[in-house]
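BUG: 3D viewer hangs when loading the predicted structure for this chain

Environment: internal workstation, default settings.
Expected: structure renders.
Actual: progress bar stalls at 90%.

Input used:
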Amino acid sequence: MRKTSGLTKIALCAAMLCVASYIVIPLPFTPVVLSMHTLAVNLAGLILKPKHAACVIGLYLLMGLAGLPVFAGGAAGIGKLLGPTGGFYFGFLPAVVGIGLLKGKNSGFWRYAIVCLAVGLPLQHLAAVLWMMHFGSVSLGAAFWTASVPFIPGDAVKCFLSAAMARTVEKGMK
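Structure tokens produced before the viewer hung:
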């Protein structure tokens, strides 16, 4: 029964991440779009064990590589991952594992929010900035101002939302 429960949670979180990919707002000054990825990634890290959360990201990336339109705005394929915005996708894995390892047991809203803000968000943004520098052939400053700074306020709000949602989900699973 436990194995089935774990697989079900992985599948549901992967589906949630796919749905979050379709909620996008293009910005005129950057190739990066606003999406609900951060919320879904944080939530998976908070409600799943680290290895299960890592499976969610692996499954999501494999679906996109296989051609399913699960990346931001319904994109798919290796071209999306290897483009200038691909770093966000690769930042999901260390973010969910870091959140999962540091969230603690029976933690509250504030711990969850702080872990997402202090661990998940920086890991995602670091991967995005480094990737954009390399694959976008831009300087550190340009990558930082294009792939990170405009998204920090919204991603911070998503950290608080995911902390609140995780507490609600946990109460429902007891």
